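Thread title: Can someone regenerate the structure for this chain?

I was given the following input by a collaborator and told the matching structure tokens would be attached. They weren't. Posting the sequence so someone can regenerate them.
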Amino acid sequence: MAPSPADERRRRGLRRMRMLALALLGFAAVVFLATLRLDHDGVWGYVNTAAEAAMVGALADWFAVTALFRHPLGLPVPHTAIIPKRKNEIGRNLQEFVTENFLTEDIARERLAAAHVSDRIGRWLADPGNRATVLTEVVRVARAGLGRLHEDEVRGLVQDFLVPRLMREPVSPIAGALLEGIVAERTHHGLVDLGLEELHDWLRENPGTYADVLGSRAPWWSPPWLDDRVIGWTYEQLLAFLREIRGDERHPARLALDDLLRRLAQDLQHDDDVMARAEALKERLLTHPQAAETAVGLWRSFRTALEAAMDDESSYFHARGDELLEHLGRRLREDPVWKERLEARLGEAVSFVVNTYGSELAEVISVTVDRWDGREAAERIELHVGRDLQFIRINGTVVGALAGVVIHAVGQALA
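Best answer:
Regenerated them for you:
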């Protein structure tokens, strides 16, 4: 058990409280001796009896507090030095207490609900400074991760792990099932729309390039004026065709593409010939000498682009990250569906951890206490709680004095 920086502060506080308790005991002893030979029929009798009872109370509570941590005066009195002798049992009892009263699903869910995590996160993310802090930490962690992953490790990961694993695993059923789900959910429509838009915009902005490409394929005997007419007509028709596809979700070309992808997904899962050709293509790609170098090159490009984006606070990375965090915070503050969803997921996670690992987490207490040396454990525990325990000695002195006054008064009344 290594001492913490706060131990010296605790030690000074414990020392002050001990001196205060001892000073009260000394004061009671001085008063007792000073009033011992005075007339006890009057007020001095009350003072002497109060001082005597205060000493008794102080000594009794000193014995009780000291007996927790060591033998008083070094004497092996039974039932003293309780913590050093019974630390293992105390650790097990503490483990059971924590398990039964803290690490339960009901208590964990109750505390989680009372914390209002979604509202707190939402309000915290509303501050631009906090969002900047999140992005700074993300960049720091990402940079550390990128710096630790070298190109040789990427190459080794591809050659020694990914390629052999992919060679053994059939990918066509997985690819077919994935493609089937994409088509069924129409997820690919967004990509198709993006491709159509980009192609249409490129053609509209580059008619000369289109004319050069088609002109180079024209027959040598075709007159130039005819080539220009054909190229111009096909150019306008192609633009019109792309506009029609973009504007009509039920366009025959879209339906044909969906049907093609749907049949391909089925064939990848059930057609032996298509599955065999897919696996053969996979093997050719994976066994190609440049496969690992291509993966390393892609990784190098990705890392360079990501590092450049992280370094530039005006980049899309930072702007988009701040926008996403602000959007998340607003949803967590204002959208009850998002709040309920987050709280439900957190509740499930906490319940899983508590139910699965609660006993193991609490067992850390008993295992740690078992490893402690008895004397050192007593010293460390006294350092943390001993200052407060000195109030028992102080209270014992005061209460003893008051009890002495009452006892003397009763004695005087009955005399």
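The two ends are 60 Å apart (CA to CA).
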